[in-house]
Amino acid sequence: MRVVDGGLGVVLAICAVVALLAATAAIVYVLRSANATRLAGTAQGMAPGMAGAPGGERAEVARGGLASRPVAPLLEQAGRTADGSGARPGSDEETEAAAIVRKAELAAEHAAAARRELDEEVRAATEEVRHFRNDLERREARIAEREGRIDAEMRRLDQTAEEIERARRDLEAKRAEVERIEAKQREALERAAGLTADQARSQLVAAIENEAKREAAVLVRDIENEAKKEGQERARKIVTLAIQRVASEQTSESVVSVLHLPSDEMKGRIIGREGRNIRAFETVTGVNLIIDDTPEAVLLSCFDPVRREVGRLTLERLVADGRIHPQRIEEAHEQSSVAIEELCVRAGEDALIEVGLTDMHPELVHLLGKLRYRTSYGQNVLKHLVESAHIAAMMASELGLDPALLKRGTLLHDIGKALTHEVRGSHALVGAEIARRYGESDDVVHAIEAHHNEVEVRTVEAVLTQAADSISGGRPGARRESLEAYVKRLERLEQIAQAQPGVEKVFAMQAGREVRVMVKPDAVDDVGAQVIARDVARQVQDELTYPGRIRVTVIRESRATEYAK
Q: For residues 75 and 105, what is the distance between their CA atoms, to the nearest angstrom?
């Protein structure tokens, strides 16, 4: 490609030089033609004027006219002057002729200068043509030299290709020789061993395969044993660290609350005339009020922590207000119920802040707060959830998992206990349905529903949730079996009575020795109340195991209210 480009450049340079020479020749020809034409016109104009002029002047004028085109007008002017000189004196004519001659000489000098410029231009053009010719010759020499080098390189490449081809033929011949020798050796080995090559290869492969299997089995066994040992040690270490880092107090929940009074006189006002205030209080709140010889204190007994807390707050409001009568008791109970709902929400928010979570549905926060007043085997459920969340987050950090996800799943794993007395089903399944309804992720829902193995465990998060739950509930002092059994028996008493038609409210009183059933007066008559009492007593006797006996009291109360205007 470089050779072609060089040849094209030479051709273009030659064309340019030829074009320049042709242009120079045309210019010279045009100039010469113009000069010849001008000389012929000058000679014709000089003929009349030279007759009356002196001989010397005519000669000068003739030389000037031949020298340049501007002399012709001057000579014509001199002739006209000579024709009219008969009327002028001799001195004037000579003066004018001399002036005309000087003008002609000046014109001749200008013409000579123009000719010199033209000669210089011709010489410059000739020099440029010579320069182009020399450049063209140098280019041709370089092109010839480059073509020579290319021809030499091509010859060298052809020689190299021939050598490679010769080496390839030699290599193929040697390869054929090697294959022939290998075939002879294989035949000799087969004759000596009595096996073909395929049979020998199969036996070798089988031997190697068996050896590899034995080695792999030994290696797998060693790896499994080491993994089990290391896994047990690591799991033990993780659980130990999690337990050590969670410094939770031992739970000791009770079914009795104590309210301190400003004086013992307040006990009489709480009892009321013929005990009407204390009966109204127990009927409205469902909490047993125990007034004994304890100075300046009364006891509130109820297995339901929420109900007991509402009763305690109601009695505290009544004592602070000083007005204690049945209507005031109902008003204080309503206000205390609203206050407990607010306290539940605040308790749920505090639990979220303690574990480091913020984005949770308000209904879930409210249900979490309600667990503040619920216990499981004597252990406060909300404290148990917070403690389990901390333990699960620590184990997740040790295992490289997401601590926030583990905190969320573990904090909500017992959320169903807030509704187990209202909704049928296991608290794990109920809690999972609630979490799914309020937009929790699938991992969190699965951890909730699988923490008691009611659903097959599929994720690591669910396994860690189970572990955290077991650690928090199994540590010494966390739970008491007797209290849990007692609470379950009282809950079952209320459920049996609540299942009867027309029942409005049910309260298990006197540590489970009495069940008070409030029925709707417009739905149940007096005979129906007797039937409900007998049915409840018979079902309790058939289903439950209890010391002594249980009294079932059905209360049918009619109220008529009018306002004086």
A: 11
